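Quick one:
INPUT:
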């Protein structure tokens, strides 16, 4: 899905603060995977994924997993 508004397609200025692991988790989220699914792929506990998602949200100044997903879709992350 591509948007024509330039301000919607620009990455969040803080996206570059994400660690490699946080970036991978954000990509998994955009593909509709749950914390449990991501945990299986990464061989960690689902609670660890939730902790990463909270850190991603804090770094990007977003609240809620839905906001992270919508943001990732807007910038065509996947």
């Amino acid at each position: 899905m591509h948007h024509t508004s330039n301000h919607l397609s620009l990455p969040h200025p803080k996206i570059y603060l994400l660690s490699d692991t946080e970036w991978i988790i954000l990509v998994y989220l955009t593909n509709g995977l749950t914390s449990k699914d991501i945990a299986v792929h990464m061989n960690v506990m689902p609670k660890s994924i939730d902790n990463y998602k909270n850190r991603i949200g804090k770094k990007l100044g977003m609240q809620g997993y839905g906001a992270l997903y919508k943001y990732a879709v807007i910038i065509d992350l996947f």
